[in-house]
Structures are given as C-alpha cells and as structure tokens.
Specification:
The protein is α+β, with helices and mostly antiparallel strands. It contains 4 helices and 4 strands.
C-alpha cells in the first residue's frame, strides 16, 4: 500500500485514534498467529521479511497499527515519501492476497496483488493494488504500485 493522506479539518473518531491491536491480538495481516509472533516481530526489527508477500502483509499491518517508522524503513529510498500521514477517519478491516509473483528468498524482485478492505468515516470501501518489491541492501522493500481499480 503506497499512501493515504489525511484530510484537513476532520476530527478523528475515537476508534480511529488508537488502533486496538495488542501483542496477543490476531495479526491484522490475516495469518493465523498473534501480532507479536507474526508482523509485530518485523515491526520491532527482530526479524526481516523473508519474502515480498510477508513484507506486504507486514506493511498492511503497519498501516493498521500506524507504524510510520516501519513503513518508511521498508520503502525503497527512490520512492519513499518524507512521512506517512494516516487518515484519522480510515479504519483498515481486512487484507486479501490475490496473487504473488516471484519474491521468494531466492528472487531479487516480486509482485503482490491484493485487495484491502477499509472504512472511511464509516463508509466501506476497498483498494485493489499490485505492488512491486525489490531487494535493497539485502532486504525486501516496497518500490512502486499500480492501482488495479
């Protein structure tokens, strides 16, 4: 997921201000593990993403928990913005990984096509994207995206 910007003048709903993800919560990425044992380890920097799909899932989870540092750290420097502005009215609901091409520990590039479901000020919506990942200094990083619809 490449970006979401906040809209000026909108107050944040209470539920959108503080993500309700704890170490014991199911991981937002959708895999059957707790946040601490899944994407939380990547966010903390104790392990690196072994595949581009695991990096994509961890970046989605970083949007859910609003971990700007992780998002910037895993963004290719050629395309990385100076900051990530989280829209206070947006709540990420679910991730569907639709297709992964290459991106294994043996590849240097890969793509992940996915759909995220979210609410924007309570209105349901989705984002369909094909993200491209590359190895940079030995680690997977997000490079670019094409919005599918």
């Amino acid at each position: 997921m490449s970006r979401r910007t906040k809209r000026p003048g909108r107050p944040a709903p209470a539920a959108a201000r503080t993500p309700a993800v704890t170490a014991e919560s199911p991981c937002p990425c959708g895999l059957p593990a707790t946040y601490a044992l899944c994407c939380g380890r990547l966010h903390a920097g104790t392990v690196a993403a072994p595949t581009c799909e695991s990096l994509m899932r961890s970046r989605y989870a970083a949007f859910v928990v609003r971990d700007e540092a992780y998002l910037l750290r895993t963004w290719h420097p050629d395309t990385r913005p100076p900051s990530v502005d989280f829209d206070p009215g947006m709540r990420w609901v679910r991730l569907e990984v639709l297709e992964t091409t290459d991106g294994s520990p043996f590849h240097t590039t890969g793509t992940v096509t996915f759909r995220t479901h979210f609410t924007d000020d309570g209105r349901p919506d989705s984002l369909h994207e094909k993200s491209r990942f590359v190895r940079y200094d030995g680690a997977w990083v997000y490079a670019t995206a094409v919005f599918v619809d």
